[in-house]
Design a protein that fits this description.
Blueprint lengths: L2 H20 L42 H6 L13 H18 L10 H12 L4 H9 L1 H13 L2 H16 L35 E2 L2 E6 L7 H8 L4 E4 H7 L4 H5 L11 E15 L14 H14 L9 E6 L6 H21 L7 E7 L11 H4 L4 E7 L7 H5 L2
Parallel strand pairs: 5-6
Antiparallel strand pairs: 1-2, 2-4, 3-4, 4-7, 5-7
Protein name: OmpA family protein
Keywords: Membrane, Signal
Pfam family, one: OmpA
Length: 402
C-alpha cells in the first residue's frame, strides 16, 4: 500500500473513533480534539532479519518497543483479497454495531443470561467482531505461522512457564528473562516485568484496582455485564470514595468530568502477586489490529499459560494502558477496545470467555509526560494481566478506619 493510502486510512479511522465516542450520551465535558499517537508499530517490525526464513535465528526478532516504533511508516505489502482499508472498516463497523446494539440494554441488565449474551456479542470468539478481526488479520496470521515455525519449541515452552510462574506469583527478582522476550524486560529495576504499584498514578487501594468513567453510559458494556455477574463492582464516584478511598492527588489528575457527581467507578480485587506486565503486544495506529508477528506470538504464549489446569476457573483481568497522547477519553476508549481485542484473540486460542475481563485505562496511569523521551513514554504502552482476587465488597466503616 502506498504512503498516501496509509495516511488516508489513519485519517478516516481517527474520524471513525471520534464518531463512536460522540454517539455515547452524555458527552464528556472534557472532550478536546484527538491526536492519537499512542502506538506507532510497524506491521513488519518483528520479521526476522535473516534473508533465508529457513535459517532465521529467533533471537533476531526486533523486540525493543522503540525500535519497533521507529520502523513505522514503511510500505505495507499488498496481498490478494480485501484491502487493509476495507478490512479495517469491516472491523470498525462490526464494533460500532455491537456497541450500538447494547447501548441502552447495557444500563439495565436483568440477569446473568443477558450479561453473557452481551459478552458473547463483544468478546466472544464467534461474534461478528471476532470474525471481522480474523479476516483482517489473515495475512499477519499466515506470516505469524511462518515465524512460529522458526521459534524453537524449547524457547516457547520456557516463555510459557515464565508467564505461568508470574501469574502464580512465583518469579523472583534474580530470575533470568527468557530469550523469547528479548532484552527489554531485563532493565536496571529488579523486576520490570511486574510494575511497582507504589509509584506514580497507580489506582490501587485496599487490595483493589479501579478505573473511572464520566457517566454510566460511558462504562463499557463488557464491564457492566461483568458487574451483573459479580466479577467487578460498579459504584458512583461518591459511593466509591466511601468504600475505597483513593488518595486525592491521584483523583485530581483525572479530567473534571471523571471527578464529578455523575462519574462512575469500576473496581475489582486483584491478587497483587499474580500479575504479568508486558510491552510486547503492539497495535497499529488508532487500531485494534496487532502490529506484528511478535504481538501474535505473545498472545499465543499467554493463552498457553492461562490454559494450564492450575488456572481452571480462575478469572484474569486484561488491562490495556497507553502513553499520554491526545485526548484522555479517546485514549480510554481505544485502550478498552484493545483490551477487548486481546481477550478475543485469547479466546480464539482456546481460553474460556468467562475467564477474561478486559479493562482499558488509557493514559490514567501513564508514568511519563508527553514531553518525555520516546523510549520512556513507550514504557507506558503496556498490557497488564492480573489474577482476579476474591470479590468481597468492603464495608465503608472498615475501609475508612484503616
Amino acid at each position: 500500500m502506498k504512503a498516501t493510502s496509509i495516511s488516508r486510512l489513519c485519517i478516516i479511522l481517527s474520524a471513525a473513533s471520534l464518531a463512536v465516542a460522540s454517539a455515547q450520551e452524555p458527552a464528556n465535558p472534557d472532550s478536546k480534539p484527538l491526536t492519537d499517537e499512542s502506538i506507532k508499530a510497524s506491521p513488519d517490525a518483528s520479521k526476522v532479519k535473516d534473508a533465508s526464513r529457513d535459517l532465521a535465528n529467533p533471537e533476531s526478532r526486533i523486540t525493543e518497543p522503540l525500535e519497533r516504533e521507529l520502523k513505522s511508516g514503511e510500505e505495507e505489502v499488498v496481498t490478494d483479497g480485501p484491502s487493509a482499508f476495507e478490512s479495517e472498516t469491516a472491523v470498525r463497523e462490526a464494533t460500532t454495531a455491537a456497541e450500538a446494539a447494547v447501548r441502552q440494554s447495557k444500563l439495565n441488565i436483568a440477569n446473568a443470561d443477558e450479561a453473557r449474551t452481551i459478552l458473547e456479542g463483544i468478546i466472544g470468539g464467534d461474534g461478528e467482531i471476532s470474525r471481522a478481526e480474523q479476516a483482517r488479520g489473515k495475512s499477519l496470521s499466515e506470516e505469524a505461522s511462518s515465524v512460529a515455525a522458526i521459534v524453537p519449541d524449547e524457547m516457547r515452552e520456557e516463555a510459557k512457564i515464565y508467564v505461568q510462574d508470574y501469574l502464580r506469583g512465583q518469579v523472583t527478582a534474580d530470575r533470568k528473562v527468557p530469550t523469547f522476550f528479548g532484552t527489554s524486560l531485563d532493565q536496571e529495576s529488579s523486576d520490570r516485568a511486574a510494575l511497582s504499584f507504589e509509584n506514580g498514578k497507580r489506582f490501587f487501594q485496599s487490595g483493589k484496582r479501579s478505573v473511572h468513567f464520566y457517566s454510566k453510559t460511558s462504562v463499557p458494556a463488557v464491564l457492566l455485564a461483568n458487574a451483573t455477574l459479580g466479577n467487578v463492582e460498579l459504584n458512583t464516584a461518591v459511593q466509591a470514595a466511601k468504600i475505597m478511598p483513593v488518595p486525592e492527588e491521584r483523583i485530581a489528575a483525572l479530567p473534571g468530568g471523571y471527578r464529578s457527581v455523575d462519574a462512575w467507578v469500576i473496581s475489582y480485587p486483584v491478587n497483587t502477586e499474580g500479575m504479568f506486565s508486558t510491552d510486547k503486544i503492539s497495535f497499529r495506529p488508532s487500531s485494534t489490529q496487532f502490529a506484528d508477528t511478535l504481538s501474535k506470538d505473545m498472545i499465543a504464549v499467554l493463552a498457553e499459560a492461562m490454559k494450564n489446569p492450575s488456572f481452571e476457573g480462575q478469572r484474569f483481568v486484561i488491562e490495556s494502558h497507553t502513553p499520554v497522547d491526545g485526548e484522555f477519553e479517546q485514549n480510554q476508549i481505544l485502550s478498552q477496545e484493545r483490551a477487548e481485542a486481546i481477550a478475543r484473540a485469547l479466546i480464539r486460542e482456546g481460553v474460556p470467555m468467562e475467564q477474561l475481563i478486559p479493562v482499558g485505562y488509557g493514559e490514567a496511569e501513564a508514568q511519563h509526560a508527553q514531553t518525555a523521551a520516546p523510549a520512556q513514554r513507550l514504557t507506558d504502552r503496556r498490557t497488564i494481566i492480573f489474577r482476579l482476587g476474591e470479590n468481597k465488597l468492603a464495608q465503608p466503616e472498615q475501609t475508612l478506619s484503616e
